[in-house]
Write a structure and sequence with these properties.
The chain contains 16 helices and 21 strands. Helix 11 crosses helix 12. It is elongated and about 90 Å long. With 537 residues, it is of the alpha/beta class. Strands 3, 7, 8, 9, 10, 11, 12, 13 and 14 form a nine-stranded mixed sheet that branches. Helix content is 26%, strand content 20%. The longest helix is centred in the middle third of the chain and has 23 residues.
Length: 537
């Protein structure tokens, strides 16, 4: 069955006409696709990732107040002033001296978010053995690795997570799970973040037609036909999702909030609209480029102006508008935004009114549920630090941030953290609390499991989650022939067997099946049951 036919059948099922996928009626199958049925609040949560492509200069983004004289000596021509015109914005005067910092003067929006308790600044983020190649460093971060890794990078941390959480669903939308698992805008290139060795099409890239969407952000519903016609001409690999993408875009609205008239502003406005329109996509990635500021980073004589200031102003104002928009739309409590860049810039300026490739840089986490404040002292440097920070000044590994967001915001279980290869970074002293305690995903939600073992239709299935075996017990002790299937969430058959049961219990070995959520379909001469099962090794 090709994707167009599949999509047509799904749309029919949505108006009451069942279709059969591997022998199972779609309406029956889809009741199992809400993977966290008892965790609606967590299940509705969304992560928005803002990538600052090109390596943002963290030192002119967040200026260390207590080290200002050294900073000024290292950057005599590009330093942000400490007073007068174009001076930095003091972020928080109540913190310890190591955390006293100033924001670039273009970042008034971030200052407002901080003052309203919605912004967390994390100083000194990087990874061991930093790599200073844009391509290699960002791919190391996408894959959840560090500079000690020389192997080929085949999958990403979010690809491993989403592939395990929704096995078989990527590229195969269903009636109750019709949305892409991840959406990227602002960059035509597929992102390794969402790659998986076997689960393909986790990422859905809107960049090819985002400008057409941007043009229609303020149009009436009657004016969407031209846009829909355009999207029907994109690559056939997108067939499975384009109708759904346009449906939520068409249904959604923005508030009266004014966004910057920039690509980033439009990307974020589109994200807000799609979420308000009903999109259940878990991760949205937006992109802004231009941060490789080797030359003319600032305007000579007015260092608060220039290329870098314009980029930071766009980020600050666009995110502030996005946060105001989703607040007015009533969806802010389920959205968390995080910024990242592949590395920072060197501590000392170069000879071209710019900066060269460096290492440590700040991350920002923004949202109603963010544990607002400042984490980590600003990295310390001296005049002897001619180019790079000492590696002992790294305050946080970037994986600590993404691991905490997966576990505490999106509700990833321990087994999913292991599959994502991020479990170490939520263990003991490695764990970083970036989500408010009251907003952290409940541990019961995080397991995606249940202790319920009651019989249905005379059949009991347990345990949930299962490790090596799934046990099926029949209430009426008897010999019987049993046919069973285990299907992934797209309806693909993983196991199909027939067995003669001489007692009341059937043992199904699931050790060879990847972790995730599946459906078990059991049929005997007198009983029949389809039930969600969770496999966690």
């Amino acid at each position: 069955m090709n994707r167009k036919d599949f999509l047509k059948l799904v749309s029919l099922a949505g108006v009451g006409t069942p279709f059969y996928l591997n022998g199972m009626p779609s309406r029956f199958m889809n009741q199992f696709l809400d993977l966290q049925m008892n965790c609606d609040t967590v299940n509705d949560r969304v992560l928005v990732i803002l990538r600052l492509a090109g390596a943002n200069d963290g030192l002119n983004t967040v200026i260390p107040v207590s080290q200002y004289s050294t900073y000024a000596a290292l950057r005599p021509n590009i330093k942000i002033n400490s007073s007068g015109t174009g001076s930095y914005i003091p972020l928080d005067s109540t913190v310890s001296s190591g955390k006293l910092v100033g924001l670039n003067p273009s970042m008034t929006g971030f200052k407002d978010l901080y003052d309203s308790g919605k912004l967390l600044l994390m100083n000194g983020v990087g990874y061991p053995n930093p790599n200073y190649s844009h391509f290699r460093s960002e791919n190391l971060m996408f894959s959840g690795k560090d500079g000690s890794t020389s192997a080929d990078l085949l999958d990403g941390m979010f690809g491993r997570y989403l592939g395990a959480l929704y096995p078989g669903l990527a590229g195969n939308p269903t009636t109750l799970s019709p949305d892409p698992l991840a959406i990227q805008m602002g960059n035509l290139n597929p992102c390794l973040f969402y790659e998986h060795t076997t689960e393909k099409n986790i990422e859905y890239n809107l960049s090819g037609f985002q400008n057409q969407m941007f043009t229609n952000l303020n149009l009436l519903n009657s004016e969407y036909q031209d846009l829909l016609t355009y999207i029907k001409g994109v690559a056939t690999s997108m067939d499975a999702y384009y109708n759904r993408v346009m449906s939520v875009f068409n249904t959604g609205v923005n508030s009266t909030t004014t966004y910057p008239n920039s690509s980033l502003g439009k990307q974020l406005k589109t994200v807000a609209r799609m979420i308000q329109g009903g999109s259940k996509t878990k991760i949205f990635q937006v992109n802004i480029s231009g941060f490789d500021t080797h030359v003319s980073q600032v305007q000579t004589g007015s260092t608060h102006l220039g290329t870098h200031a314009n980029l930071l102003g766009d980020i600050s104002n666009s995110i502030a508008a996005f946060q105001a928009d989703i607040q007015q739309l009533g969806i802010a409590n389920k959205i968390m935004t995080v910024t990242f860049s592949e590395f920072g810039r060197q501590v000392r300026e170069n000879g071209s009114t710019g900066t060269d490739h460096g290492d440590l840089a700040p991350f920002f986490v923004i949202g109603n549920g963010a544990a607002a404040g400042i984490l980590g002292d600003h990295p310390v440097f001296t005049n002897a630090t001619s180019y790079y920070y000492n590696q002992n000044q790294r305050r946080y590994d970037y994986r600590q941030i993404f691991a905490s967001l997966l576990q505490d915001w999106l509700g990833a279980s321990t087994s999913l953290m292991v599959t994502s290869e991020l479990d170490y970074y939520v263990t003991g002293a490695q764990k970083v609390n970036i989500i408010k305690d009251a907003q952290k995903a409940d541990v019961v939600c995080a397991t995606l499991g249940t202790n319920e073992t009651g019989a249905e239709n005379g059949i009991k299935v347990y345990p949930v989650p299962a490790n090596q075996y799934v046990y099926v017990e029949f209430e009426n002790r008897r010999q019987t022939d049993v046919n069973y299937q285990i299907l992934d969430m797209s309806g693909r058959i993983i196991i199909q067997k027939s067995e003669h049961v001489v007692s009341n219990r059937l043992e199904i070995n699931v050790l060879s099946i990847s972790e995730g959520t599946y459906m078990l379909r059991i049929k005997s001469s007198s009983d029949e049951l389809t039930k969600k099962i969770i496999i966690s090794h």
